[in-house]
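Reopening this ticket.

The earlier resolution said the output was attached, but the attachment link was broken on my side. Pasting everything inline this time so it's all in one place.
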Amino acid sequence: MSESYTFGQIAEQRAATYLKKMGYEILEQNYRYRKAEIDIIAKKDSFIIVVEVKARSSFFFGAPESFVNRKKIQLLVLAIDAYIQKNDLDVEVRFDIISYVVENGIWTREHIENAFYLF
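Inline output:
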């Protein structure tokens, strides 16, 4: 496995651990539907939370969360719609981003709730 793939997997596991500590229930990790993948599907209160995890080794090219583009958002929506229909759920959906930057071995996390809205 590539070093960047492993780095991403570590970030996703850190995010799942963090969410559990914050009272979220992890329903799925790496949920795939067609070409889409949701890193984490969690539940808290009456919400299903779609969590995109982004990690970088520096801010050189920008903040990790800035790499969630329109195409990625469309794929996340497609996948969570399929998940909700498959599981016959009647819930509200929230989209969060958890980003990590690792500099000199120090992991910095930012959790952006309601990172984007669908209209």
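Reporter confirms the inline version is readable. The CA atoms of residues 40 and 95 lie 10 Å apart. Residues 3-21 form the longest helix (19 residues).
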